[in-house]
Amino acid sequence: SAAEKGGWPSFMDKEIHEDPEAVANTLLGRFDAKGDIVLDEVRIEPEVLRSIDRIVVVACGTASYAGLVARYAIEHWVRIPVEVELAHEFRYRDPILTPRTLVVAISQSGETMDTLMAIRHAREQGSRVLAICNTQGASIPRESDAVLYTHAGPEIAVASTKAFVAQIVAAYLLGLYFAQIKGTMFRDEIHHIVQQLRSMPEKIQWVLDTQADTVNRTATHMVNARSFLFLGRHVGYPVALEGALKLKEIAYTFTEGFAAGELKHGPIALVDAGEPVVVIVPSSRGRSTLHNKVVSGIEEVKARGAYTIVVAEEGDPDAERYADAVFWRPVCSTLLSPLVDVVPLQLFAMDMAMLKGYDVDKPRNLAKSVTVE
Ligand code: G6P
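== Glutamine--fructose-6-phosphate aminotransferase [isomerizing] ==
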């Protein structure tokens, strides 16, 4: 009903605007007075956690992209291999699982049958399972050894938005907790990242407040486009995949997300005059090689006539050079940038779907939670 939407035209609109709150609430109560991470709910003893030598994330759809983002951070912080696998592929290829493997199931609903079957298999093989879930008492957390709840609040729109940012935050907390327990990072470093995480809600709010008009104008301009390519590198790669998925799900547009480095290995063949290409540009600070490579990717598609939509850090002069439209992100660390970069892409998909007259909350053929295999 209109009242449930709290004045927003759709649940999706409301939920995108709850991204900042979803991040803030997922951080709430997860630190002690000294600023150390306390995850009491993760009832796996520290000795057991210390023995974990590999993490396998299983998930479907948007949740799997949160896993892909987390992989970059957790491997960097904890120095143990992290694999991310679609839950429905995982079980059928005789995956290697040991008591030292931690399987992390990410699921907003906690009822996705493919993910549930994957964790059952993992537990049968003697691995421990931790669920990152947004729904108290759902099947996946019930059948897991431990659970870390995202506190995004109920998500009604079929296309996942606020749950995605909350999943990234929860997975990051888990990674930092591991780093704390295993001693792979200095306490100060962990505290520093926690501080940065705590500043993300206001950065997301800034994007919502200042970029929505540009996003809407760009959507209006591109509403008749038949296909979109999304490119990103490093953590921008899963953001590209998620941006592509959102647009496909609710605006029924053919989209593909690619790792920007793959451009020359295939996707560039698709680019001709007017083809919209969305590019997530990493910060130019610190990681200039990555930044330069992504920028030259924009230059290449632009040279072939692409319509370029760029997500870039405020004040990045290179990003603008070959861009037809820019969605700005406030300055933030690279590993945390997906939390802001996905926001204009969520808005963009919603605007496109609205402009085409579709029901953004209930896209055709899709279910909020798929409880069959
Ligand atoms: C369905 C939804 C997607 C969601 C996926 C995983 O396909 O339409 O939006 O990402 O399921 O759902 P889960 O509840 O496990 O996160």
